[in-house]
Amino acid sequence: FKADDGSDFSGWEEKTLGELCAPLTYGMNAAATKFDGENRYIRITDIDDETHALLPNDIVSPSGELDDKYLVKKGDILLARTGASTGKSFLYHPKDGKLFYAGFLIKAHVLSSSDDYFIYSQTLTDRYWKWVKTASMRSGQPGINANEYASYSFAVPSLPEQRKIADFLSAVDAVIAAQQAEVDAWEQRKKGVMQKLFSQEVRFKADDGSDFPDWEDKTLGELFHISAGGDIDKNNCAAKQSKDYPYPVYANALVNNGTYGYANYYKIDGDTFTVTGRGDVGHAVARHCMYVPIVRLLVCQPNMDDDVDFFAEQINYTRVFIESTGVPQLTAPQLSKIKVRRPTLPEQRKIADCLASMDEVIQKSKGELAKWRELKKGLLQQMFV
Question: What confidence tens digit (pLDDT) does each residue in 286-302 have?
Fold first, then answer.
């Protein structure tokens, strides 16, 4: 960036976080209690991993007497100091309301001689995360204390250049936020359409303008052969690349070289849909020739002429959760007993096509969002080498 008069800014200086901030402090050790409508308690888990913004759910207040020294104010950056989230950061904005920060967070208040957004942006770079990985390596649980955070150093320009950089990155953030809002809006629209279609509040007509027949009450077991696991085809599954794999990646699913090992996956040809039996239980996806993890998914193959996309969407609409021994788990026999509504095949296809068209818009919006996020990531790396 150039100065307002077109001249070059002065060179950047290496400084520590401790030099740029007031002494770093630890949060309050209080239990979470029901939200009182004013005083919010911010914990590590309340910070979104992707956006670093406050999550809108599970809002709580701190219990006991409240001390204003634990209030989060303009210019404050919160840093996670322990556990798997060590290094995660959060920049306070007045729109976040009245926040008290918890004990597993460290507060760094940026002095007026620096721009708080510019300093916060340093915590989003690859360089910072490499430092976090090194600094947090200790016996037992990972962690970084206040003194260690204060020692983190990086190059800093003059305040006017900091502000120009911060304004530019904030403008990119605004585009990202608008794109995220578009994605959220389309997902909400789809939920509304699903509610109207699967409740039969809205019905399609046949191609000749006549009404379709009433829907039948069935169980999934009557309509589909449901199985978990299967024979392993080593030739087809030995090296299925993750970018080609059509299902979300679970922990420990990937082999070290980034491919899928045949020990965890097998191939199914033909139209099916799968339902997660563990973890994100009840999530259904239609498949047309796929690779599936043996222990994670229940595979539903139609016994008659039915549209698998329609039934996958219907299962997602109902989202059945079954508790088994305290852990969310869904077995093939349990899934077989789930009740569904079965229209005729032509109506199934009209509903599936309608929802698929909305999915195309949602995926396009998500693609644009991913591009903007990748652009910001690239800008951070180029600016803060």
Answer: 765 455 544 567 888 89
Beta-bridged to residue 301, according to DSSP, are 225
Question: Which whole-number Å values give the CA distances from 17 to 29, 105, 128, 137, 144, in the listed order?
Answer: 24, 16, 12, 20, 14
170's enclosing H/E stretch is helix 159-198
pLDDT (mean) for 209-216: 96
pTM to 2 decimals?
A: 0.77
Residues spanned by the domain of 201:
158-206+343-385
* Same domain (yes/no): 382, 286: no
Please give the structure tokens belonging to residue 116: 């708080």
CATH number (domain holding residue 82): 3.90.220.20
* Residue with tokens 């955070």, as numbered in its chain: 149
**Strand-pair partners of 197:** none
Of 97-111, 182-196, 202-216, 263-277, where does mean pLDDT reach its minimum? 263-277
- Asked if the structure places residue 5 within a domain, the reply is no
Which H/E stretch holds residue 90?
strand 89-91
Q: Which pair of structure tokens corresponds to residue 285?
A: 């996806």
Looking at residue 277, the DSSP 8-state letter turns out to be -
215 contacts 331 by C-beta, under 8 angstroms? no
Q: In terms of domains, do 381 and 278 share one?
A: no
Q: Closest by alpha carbon to 193, among 361, 73, 35? A: 361
Q: What is the pLDDT of residues 53-71, one digit of tens each?
A: 999 888 999 999 999 999 9
